[in-house]
Specification:
mainly alpha, 216 residues, 3 domains, 0% strand
Length: 216
């Protein structure tokens, strides 16, 4: 595994080295003796530009080593060359990093790019759309927020905590629209997810104080 990660990390420079050696062998001994080096060099360079080093970010992301993740992403010089699902993941990660820094404008820009490309997995697409919905709610654009959150629920959300957040968001949107029956229905769905995150649980308790007194 360490060797594989090493090859991914340094594959660009290894590719360059293979091409340089291939040219040298070509000059000295002819094309066919250098063919394997040309082949290895081209494969290494192509995989660097079309696949990228995103496999390397999993461990530092899980351990919260944000600077290391950013350093790895900085080696992707031309993101538009990345294979489409990989490019979508790249922009999702960039968006999440921007959200950690509370740079919501940049986060929204990256997440929209990822959304336009389509996520590699439906669950990732759902999480992406939910984040866009949350940012729209922060701006007070409830129409856009509803559109994104509905799309997130349709796509599928990867965990019950996030699913509860989606239903609570829809509850708030419909309360604002004074469509109380729908708001109560979304609130019940949020509770049915049985979230355990303190922030989500507190939000449910806060809404529960007055939603039962609302008509509809």
């Amino acid at each position: 595994m360490k060797l594989y990660n090493f090859l991914i990390k340094y594959r660009f420079w290894l590719g360059v080295l293979a091409i340089v050696l291939a040219i040298t062998v070509n000059i000295v001994s002819g094309f066919w003796p250098s063919f394997v080096l040309y082949f290895v060099g081209v494969i290494a360079l192509a995989s660097h530009f079309f696949i990228g080093p995103l496999r390397l970010i999993q461990e530092p992301m899980e351990q919260g080593r944000v600077e290391e993740v950013e350093k790895i992403l900085s080696t992707i010089w031309f993101p538009n060359l990345l294979y489409k699902p990989v490019r979508s993941t790249y922009y999702t990660v960039k968006g999440n990093l921007a959200m950690m820094k509370q740079d919501f404008d940049t986060a929204e820009k990256h997440l929209k790019k990822s959304n336009e490309l389509g996520a590699p997995m439906p669950e990732a697409e759902g999480a992406n759309k939910l984040q866009l919905g949350m940012m729209a709610m922060q701006r007070g654009d409830l129409k856009q927020a509803e559109s994104y959150v509905r799309a997130a629920i349709r796509s599928g959300i990867p965990d019950k905590e996030s699913e509860a957040v989606a239903y609570l968001s829809m509850c708030q949107i419909f309360m604002n629209k004074r469509e109380f029956r729908a708001a109560k229905d979304f609130f019940r769905k949020a509770k049915a997810c049985k979230p355990t995150t303190k922030q989500v649980v507190d939000q449910i308790k806060e809404i529960e104080k007055y939603i039962s007194r609302i008509p509809g």
